[in-house]
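Thread title: Can someone regenerate the structure for this chain?

I was given the following input by a collaborator and told the matching structure tokens would be attached. They weren't. Posting the sequence so someone can regenerate them.
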Amino acid sequence: MSITSSLNKTTQQIVLRSEKHRERYLALMSQQHQQSPSQKLTSTNLAHAYAASSEQEKLIFRGKSNPINLGIISAYNDLLSAHQPLKNYPDKIKRSALKLGCTAQFAAGVPAMCDGVTQGQTGMQLSLFSRDLIAQTVAIALSHQLFNGVLMLGVCDKIVPGLLIGALRFGFLPALMIPAGPMSSGLDNETKADFRKKFVQGEIDKHQLLEVEQKAYHEPGTCTFYGTANTNQIMMEMLGLNLPGSSFIHPTSPLREKLIDYSTKILCQQANDDFESSALCYTVNAYSMVNAMVVMLATGGSTNLAIHLVAIARSAGIIINWDDFDDLSKQTPLIAKMYPNGPADINEFSKAGGLSVVISELKSAGLLHDNIRTPLGEGLDHLKKIPYLEGDNIKWHDDHAAKLQMFGESSLSENNSVIASVKNPFDKVGGLALVKGNLGRALIKVSAVSKENQSITAPAICFSDQESLKKAYQEGLLYRDFVAVIRFQGPKAMGMPELHQLTPILLSIQSKGHRVALLTDGRMSGASGAVLAAIHLVPEAIDNEILRKIKDDDVIHMDAKNGILRCEVEPKELEMRTISSGVNLLEDQGLGREMFEVFRNRVSDAELGASIFLF
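Best answer:
Regenerated them for you:
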């Protein structure tokens, strides 16, 4: 089926807007390819590069005029459950490459923060900036000019976007991502959320909460809710960088092991292909980017991707903005429900057919482009394929329907609680809404908020950090209707930390029958839930006089359906007010925050990707 006229219009607006940037980017990639950097390396350069290699690897390199050498970049650490399984991947990749007559080298390890650990802590102020630091680390690794392809190992929040941003600046090379897969389902997400609410209400202590949390996060693998990490994986499949159907296979599955081999095989093949049919710069294009945005909206993906996809796109010469997300959200039905948008987790989503079913449904409605590239070949249908083992070999089901026929599983029902059809969606619009007005522009994750809570008109209560709000809550001052205005959390002021620890507090107040909402220039988590939250506000407080002039009890009007965000104070009165001085950045010292002042001084606003790079 051909795409809808609305999807075509939005896509062509992006293509036209990006034309000069994209031409400049592709010209740079072509120039770098034609210069064949690796061919300029001297014998001394090469001797250094291969000094620590095995004799077999040295023989392969010396015996071929154009040897294929893959660069491995990994975000392994065992602090992140999602990344702990990556520990032995490099050795597996090296063995696979050798069997194919290629070599592979571990080029770099990149930092990998866990936002779950730093939630509510000072370290969260470094989290978003870690993405661009990762991208710089990738550039340093690939600057050795020794590689014919790049395998990137990473899963979580800022890590996958950082890896891809860095790799796209070496987009003349082919590249693939290899994930580790989710942990098995532990304590269900609704019970976990309920216990968090009980904790903030003082009904259980921290030891009881820890016991509950450890039942939810209980083994190696990605957290199973549909937050940023799992949204990343779906985005990488849609961009043609993860093997189709590979994202949500358990880390210890025999299939997971074979997928590592298969990714290595595919990249070795791509490294031998011609430039335009294999290079990363052509895989990531306006059409694959629009597909990723549509699927993010159709599945209620993490709000963080509304920042990361902008930054990723710009690194490939593609200019997207929040108007594009808003346009696409109005065209795209919500057809998946995973926590925080519903009770199911990512494993249940996978069992229900996962991305294969979502793609089939969206394609039938003309909401996805077909002219895209995947690791398995050209065309959207390749992304519907599902891997399985036949003996020791990977085979591919054509799609979820073929899998059902082979294994006799139940088929997709229009009443399915995890994945719905486009004819009977969970909602007629996608997961995000853009709101704007005299306060600026912000995003709301509507997929997790009930219809009756998607608008509010209420007095403001202003805070300069989340600790102040938590203190007010503990003192019993917040049991009323209000909009919590948390300022000076933007990238220039504070590195744009997530404020997810506020979710249980606001939910607790909302559950008592009060109407509450959040307005902030900071971020919420991919797990942001059922409280109306206008986030990522631009301009941020440092550059936003009206936001800095708001006082307690000023009326705020926020309406996700109609795209409104206003402070209902007369312009003349606002003009006469003094401007809040905000945060004292000189006090923002310790735990390495002072080392990132150069990032805060250079960073763009959230709608431009909150990036230090000016691509």
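The radius of gyration is 24 Å.
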